[in-house]
Amino acid sequence: MPTIPKDVEEMLKEEAERSGVAVEELLVEIISRALNKPPSLKPIGERLLKALREFREKVLKIEGVVYVVIPEGEFHESNVLVVISRVDLRVMEDIVKAKFSVEERYGDEITINPYIALEGEEVISKGQGGFQT
Hints:
Layout: H1 6-19, H2 23-34, H3 46-59, E1 65-71, E2 80-84, H4 89-105, E3 114-118, H5 122-126, E4 131-132
C-alpha cells in the first residue's frame, strides 16, 4: 500500500475533521470520485447518519407516516426505511420532498434513498435486525 505524504495526510485529517467524517471515509469518497463510482454506503458515515436523522425528524411529522428506521447498512438497496399506514400519493410526495430538502441542505454530498413500506409488510419484520435509532 502506498504511503501518503505527511502534508497530504494533514490536509486529509483537517478536511475529515471539518466535514465530520473519518479519514477513511473521505479517502473512499475521493477514490470513488476519481474512479467515477458512487461511494459505498457501508459503513454508514457520520455525515450521512446526521442527514438521515434530520430526514427522519421531517418525515415523522407527515400524517400517515408510522415510523422511520435507519438501518446500520443498506436495506433493500436503501439507507432508510419509512413505514406508512396507508398508500397515499400525498404522503409519498411529502416523503420525497423531505428527501430533496435534506439532500439540498447537505449540498447534494449525501443521498437519501428511502424504502417506503406499508405497515404490516413482511419485509419490515424480516429486516428488524441491524437497525439503529
